[in-house]
Design goal:
Length: about 325
């Protein structure tokens, strides 16, 4: 599946002058600048904190500034607003969406819940505020296993929207009473087993870091089981977990199966290791809409503000706060 993202704001280069202007405008606005691991390298470098979505959600809720500027996609900025209703939350380009979040609507979820009225709903954080408002506990890839393991084993679990993360959680927890929504991220789904096998065979000494939202996670475990890739070389990790593993690895070469923006943080964390993308086309066009031009426009003009209706925010906040209470943050800030 291909996805067409709107054309981003362009025309500004990330020069040292740009960097200085961004920093001084952020200070003048009393804003905290957050950047997701999949952002462009210049955006990561200018931010106050870089991390995965769980780590950034926690930082947003604890920040003492008047404003949060969220360099990421729209649902992430919505989550920051849900947790910090009194702060002004801005995203440099409100058109930066997410094909995974779009794979389930609030109406879809209402209909699914009606089929399983006693089930506990677990939503990966890549969902709209409305879907979070219909959710019992949110999760990220860092704590999805712990969230599902915390639920009464006799209750049915409805897990959404990422089918690959759901399959990973089901495998690790061994839970049978779990239904999984058939959603996917087109970027992660584009990293497939064939590509992984070819890359692993071409680099027999390399370790493999695989993000559980990748379509290749199942293949990586299968290949390990069949002896194609030594089992100890395959690591299924959240984005935050990848950074910890990067600092500790003894390998000289690591193949990385996730969005390519992650390579920047990994190379910074372990400059002596050769990190290579399994698929260097795995780049999220929505994440890359937060350009140097978009960030400057945001800081100069105070746009785009992210708003969530108070009743929706209140219901969504309960599910997000349960998420934050479970698991350890694995962000790379
Ligand atoms: S990489 Fe996939 S899941 Fe992440 S924001 Fe982009 S479309 Fe959504």
């Amino acid at each position: 599946m291909t996805t067409t993202a709107p054309a981003p704001y362009t025309g500004v280069e990330p020069t040292p002058e740009w960097f200085d202007e961004v920093r001084s405008l952020a200070t003048a606005r009393n804003a905290t600048l957050l950047a997701h691991n999949y952002q462009l390298p210049a955006i990561q470098d200018v931010a106050d904190h870089v991390g995965d979505s769980l780590a950034l959600s926690r930082i947003a809720s604890e920040a003492e500034t008047d404003e949060i500027i969220f360099c990421g996609v729209h649902f992430m900025a919505e989550t920051a607003k849900i947790l910090s209703p009194d702060k002004r939350v801005l995203i440099p380009d409100a058109r930066a969406g997410c094909s995974l979040a779009d794979s389930i609507t609030a109406d879809d979820l209402r209909a699914w819940k009606a089929e399983y009225p006693d089930a506990v709903v677990v939503s990966y954080v890549n969902t709209t505020a409305e879907v979070k408002g219909l959710t019992d506990i949110c999760c990220t890839s860092s704590n999805a296993v712990e969230v599902v393991a915390s639920i009464d084993p006799d209750r049915m679990v409805l897990f959404l929207p990422d089918q690959f993360l759901g399959a990973h959680v089901k495998r690790v927890t061994g839970r049978e009473n779990m239904q999984i929504w058939a959603g996917e991220c087109h970027v992660h789904a584009g990293i497939n087993g064939d590509e992984l096998t070819a890359r692993a065979q071409a680099h027999p000494d390399a370790e493999l870091f695989v993000h559980p939202e990748c379509g290749c996670a199942t293949s990586a475990l299968y290949l390990a089981g069949e002896g194609f890739v030594p089992e100890e070389k395959v690591k299924i990790l959240s984005t935050g977990g990848m950074l910890d593993a990067a600092r500790q690895t003894g390998a000289r070469e690591v193949l990385v199966a996730t969005e390519v923006g992650m390579l920047h943080q990994l190379r910074r964390a372990a400059p002596d290791v050769d990190f290579q993308a399994v698929n260097d086309r795995a780049s999220c066009p929505y994440m890359k809409m937060i350009t140097p031009a978009a960030l400057l426009r945001c800081l100069r003009e105070g746009r785009d503000e992210v708003l969530v209706a108070p009743d929706v925010a209140e219901r969504a906040r309960a599910s997000v706060e349960r998420m934050i209470a479970i698991g350890t943050p694995a962000g790379g800030e």
